[in-house]
Amino acid sequence: MVKALIPQKLRQLIKLRVYSGNTYHCPMCGYDSKSLYSLGHDLPILEEKEVVGSKRRDAGCHSCRSTDRDRLVFVFLKEKLQIFQNKEIKILHFAPEKALSKVLFKTGFEEYVCGDLFTEGYFYPDYVRNMNVLDIPFGENYFDLIICNHLLEHVPDDRAAMQELFRVLKPGGKAILQVPLSLNSEKTDEDFTLTNPSEKEQRFGQFDHVRIYGQDYFDRLESVGFNVEKHHLYNEYPTYGLSIDEFIIQGGK
Predict the structure, then answer these.
(1) Pairing between strand 90-94 and 111-116?
(2) Mean pLDDT of all residues in 42-56
(3) Which among 74, 131, 179, 218 has most CB atoms closer than 10 A?
(4) Which pLDDT band holds residue 15 (cuts at 50, 70, 90)?
């Protein structure tokens, strides 16, 4: 009852004061905090398979609401690819994360295209268009950079999606291709006959996932033409609240 009487902006200011500290520094909004809020899924399969990027963890920024996944991509874009020093590039961003997309949209790149197959009801900004990763409405060799962050695990025909992403990427371009990845499984576990949401959640870690990728994920990317590189950033930026286990999966052309 008391909470309802306090304006939302004031509640946010109070919260930021409470969590202020010097343990973490958010590279996206600059907020310094003593903790991160908890997110992800607490499911046995995610622990059993040591799935990176999905299991329950302390990873959310109290200020901008960015996650460890958002910050990992942002730091890679800023520090390694240095895209903010050259705005004359074309970017394709699938299923854009709110905090990350907000920063990229405001930067003013030559072209910043955001798309998702299900835009209605997802509270996306107006600039996010309905788009199917299996049928990207752009010509070959169009984009300098593609961000596909935790999307392919939703797509039954993931190789067709990979082929489309490779098709629209320019020679010399880079694609960030993050997925929930099992650290202790060689082979990907997938089953397209499984339709019950509860059963899918128990087996794949989320009701709308169709697989948990194993280490053969990199073979799938290479099979459509991507040159795969892995970049681990945690040790370089230990205060940014990145996952100690997750690395950037970069596909080059």
Answers:
(1) parallel
(2) 93
(3) 179
(4) confident
Residues 27, 28, 31, CA angle at the centre, nearest 5°? 70
CB 130 within 8 A of CB 143: no
Does residue 15 belong to any structural domain of this protein? no
11 in any annotated domain: no
Pairing, β 111-116 against β 57-60 = unpaired
% of the chain surpassing 90 pLDDT: 85
Cα separation, 181 vs 177, in Å, equals: 11
Amino acid at 118: F
State what percent of residues in the chain have pLDDT above 70.
96
* pLDDT recorded at residue 4: 53
In a domain, 106, yes or no: yes
Q: Which domain holds residue 224?
A: 41-56+67-252
**Dihedral angle sign, alpha carbons of residues 126, 127, 133, 134:** positive
CA 134 to mean position of chain CA atoms: 18
In this structure, the chain runs to a length of 253
State both tokens at 127. 């600039």
Q: What is the number of domains present in the chain?
A: 1
User: What does 58-91 look like in DSSP terms, one character per residue?
Assistant: EEE-TTT---HHHHHHHHIIIIIS-GGG----EE
For residue 3, tell me if it sits in a domain: no
CA neighbor of 90 nearest in space, from 113, 111, 114: 111
Position 1 pLDDT exceeds 50: no
CATH number of the domain encompassing residue 141: 3.40.50.150
